[in-house]
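Now for a concrete sample entry.
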Amino acid sequence: MNDPRWASIDAFAEQNRDNILRDITRLVAVPSVEGTPEPGAPFGAGPRAALDKALEIAAELGLETYNAEGYIGWAQTGPIAGGQKYLATITHTDVVPEGNGWDADPYTVRVRDGWLLGRGVSDDKGPGILCLYALKYLKDSGIKLKYPVRALLGTNEETNMHDVDYYAAHYPMPAFCFTPDAEFPVCNGEKGGFNGEIVSPRLENGVILDFQGGVARNAVPDRAFCTVRVAPDAIECTEGVTKEAGENGATVLRGQGKSGHAAMPAGTVNAISLLVDCLLHNHIGTEAEQAYLRVLQKLHAATDGSAVGIAADDGLFDPLTIIGGTIGQEDGVIRQSFDCRYPTNTDPEKMTAALEQVCGTAAHLENLTSRVPFYIAADSPAIQTLINTYNEVTGEQQTPFTMGGGTYARHFPYAVSFGPEHTDVAIPAFAGPMHGANEGAPFEKLIEALKIYILALLRLQDVEL
């Protein structure tokens, strides 16, 4: 590394290892799944408490802090005058529900073989702490900054991103922003998103008494159960499904799969799909119930959308993905949510038409929402600054990439996602991915990411924005 600032950056990161681990542990300890809105807590008490904790940590680091009515907060290196251009990072303090399959308390950070385990260590509380320490370096170094730096801390990324909508409506946007909420090296494009529910008609006098599964629309569920009005000895369990006696002669079927992020479904096993296959294998259900189950079976049959006629690949992004995230039954109506990430050569209208054809009269679509694909040219100056910094620090020769995940970047006029995940780092058996059980992050890679972020923010000072 030839940059004369590197020795100071490296020393700062190494000296703060224990402090960084301490503060990640403090932030992860605050459960922050979206909840019921309250005064000053528009996304519930948990996200507000996590925001308060992050700002408390930032103040301890000597940074200026601000809380924007509980929607979003930030720390910054110093005053930002009206109309002044500034740089920003943005991470989020909210998390997806803990789900099932954890080996220990999800909100107590554990360290095992160099990995941090806990809900949010990688998505996105660990990276949030890194940004605060990057700003601490910039402030403590005394370097005069052409562009002040603000570390934004969101509270609603995992569901609707209304936090950043609020920010955009009330505050000037940064000249350039990166979000450490994805993979390295630099993601300069994100697929579009298409979400909704496949809803059954009211199933009168049904055999399926209850069907529940999943913890979030944007996560592949690893557990689900259904209760059916059939005796246990009349059911043959299929792969991944177990049975137990329920009340009044009913049977409870449980599916055990493997969870993961909706944008990266390869290697996951959807527990809802296991139950649907089992029910159809045993011919369980009225005619209307089985017709609805056959629609769900097509949804779950292939995560590339080919089974429901929406497969798409534009050569710019990875191919389309679609998963069923949650299922619930109430008053005889079953609702299966889906999460689709799509490239540029299709659109929600085409996909809606295809899904409606699959549904026929057995089901219908409700609560459809969408967002368009997002892309910024890889040769733009700020992006080149980030990719060059990453390659110099790591010794790699990577290029920007596009992905299926959706981040805050699409909400800003000039922004990308920038680490700290590494797709080439194998996740050990005791750890899990973002949104999964035993969510893990390699601590050495987090420390390396801090160094990359500091150097990148310094080099961005020389870019005309």
